[in-house]
Amino acid sequence: MNGAKDWENSIVAFLVGKKLPGKNVKQLLERKWGRVGSLTIHLAGNGVFLIRFENLQARDWVLDNGPWDVWGYHLAVRPWCRGMSLTLGECKSMPVWVKLRGVPIQFWNKVGLSYIASVLGKPLHMDTPTMNRFALLFAWVCVDMNATSSFPECITLELEDGSTTSIEVEYPWRPAACTLCKVFDHSNRSCPRVTRREWMPRPVVMAQKRPEDAQG
């Protein structure tokens, strides 16, 4: 079976936090991404889209120029691979863009930034300004983070001389995650596995008159 070759230039896009009409989402993505190359968009599930690009360059442009959204709702994108689940409810990890502030100059390269970002998860890619070092105020890195992550806001980095420095971590978007199911489909609060205590009204006892209070 060589069908996988037909999808080697594809990405999977998960619309997180809101279910929108598939037709409208497809039209918007075609306008956003169609200018970099020919593509076809296939609805793969509720809020899940499989996008096949004409060439690898167009696919990589989409991956490198996130984060993306649809009408304000986050669109998580990742390269398609054989055996990959197309169900958001089974996603135990999610690509998340993070902003790293205070990175020492000597770490400002692909190896150094990947080393720092690996504390958060698996580094996937960086945006073009970060790779070209247009500005050194902060670095944008896309990291595949687990649903069990605590999303730390600071990373302690040990330097060559034994001293340490702090790297600030910002998350423009944080997906809802359930640490019980270890997936990104829902939060702990809405987890179906949580036993909820149903509210029961307290019994109301009506005051009774004493016999001596009765008239007549």
Automatic annotation (TrEMBL):
It comes from the Eukaryota. Residues 4-82 form the DUF4283 domain. Pfam families: DUF4283. InterPro entries: At4g02000-like, DUF4283. This is DUF4283 domain-containing protein/zf-CCHC_4 domain-containing protein. It comes from Cephalotus follicularis (Albany pitcher plant).
